[in-house]
Amino acid sequence: MEATVPAPPVESLAKSLKLLADETRLRILYHLRIESELNVRMLCDRVDQSQPAVSHHLALLKEHGLITCRRSGKHNFYSIVPRDDHDLLETILRSLAPAP
Q1: CA separation (Å) from 10 to 15, 61, 88?
Q2: From the centroid of its chain, how far is CA 23?
Q3: Which among 1, 13, 37, 96 could bridge 79 via Cys, Cβ 3.0 to 4.6 Å?
Q4: Is the pTM of this model over 0.85?
Q5: For the chain, percent helix, then strand, then coil, each to nearest 5?
Q6: Predicted confidence (pLDDT) at residue 58 exceeds the cutoff of 60
Q7: 54 alpha-carbon distance from chain centroid
Q8: What domains appear along the chain, each with residue ranges and CATH number?
């Protein structure tokens, strides 16, 4: 009898790669990695996009568990969720950093 090899999580990886294939989302994640926590207005300034556009991208990133949101007064502050399985994300964001 042959042992059954479990199927790799291809569908999940494909969804993650599709999510990360967007320039604005990569810019948002890059700035959150560098600055730890930012609100929507700050992110709009960093990525040069409108508030509705940035909010849309933040909602997708949050839905996929890549970022989290903390409310402080009237503002929502976003940060990257620290997880052990973010090796791919960390590698991508590290490659965007300017060379020393």
Answers
A1: 9, 19, 14
A2: 11
A3: 37
A4: no
A5: 55, 15, 30
A6: yes
A7: 12
A8: 22-95 (1.10.10.10)
